[in-house]
Design brief:
The protein has about 90 residues and is mainly α. The protein is about 80% helix and about 0% strand. It folds into 2 domains: about 1-30, no CATH class; about 30-89.
Length: about 90
C-alpha cells in the first residue's frame, strides 16, 4: 500500500465499520427473496419519483417538447432492465 491508502485505511475504516456494521448484519440476515423484493421496490420508488418531476424541469434546455424528449420516459425505460434482472435472478 502507498502512504495515502494507509492513511485512508487508518482513519476511515474504523468509523465506517462502526456505522455500517449493524446495517451489514441486517442485510446478511435477509433472505434472497426479501433482498430481491427490496431492490425491485427501490427501483419502483425511483421510477415513481421521476414521474413527480415537473414538465418544465424535465424539458429544460430541450429544443422542443416532443414526447421522445421526455426524460421521465427514458429514466423509466433505463430502470426496467434492472427491475427485470433483480426480479428474476
Amino acid at each position: 500500500m502507498n502512504w495515502l491508502s494507509e492513511q485512508l485505511h487508518t482513519w476511515l475504516v474504523p468509523p465506517l465499520k462502526a456505522v455500517f456494521a449493524p446495517l451489514d448484519q441486517w442485510l446478511i440476515s435477509l433472505s434472497p427473496t426479501t433482498a430481491r423484493a427490496c431492490a425491485v421496490g427501490l427501483f419502483v420508488l425511483a421510477a415513481i419519483w421521476v414521474w413527480t418531476l415537473r414538465r418544465d424541469f424535465v424539458y429544460r434546455g430541450a429544443p422542443s417538447r416532443s414526447r421522445w424528449r421526455d426524460l421521465r420516459i427514458w429514466a423509466v425505460l433505463a430502470l426496467i432492465p434492472y427491475m427485470i434482472i433483480y426480479a428474476t435472478l
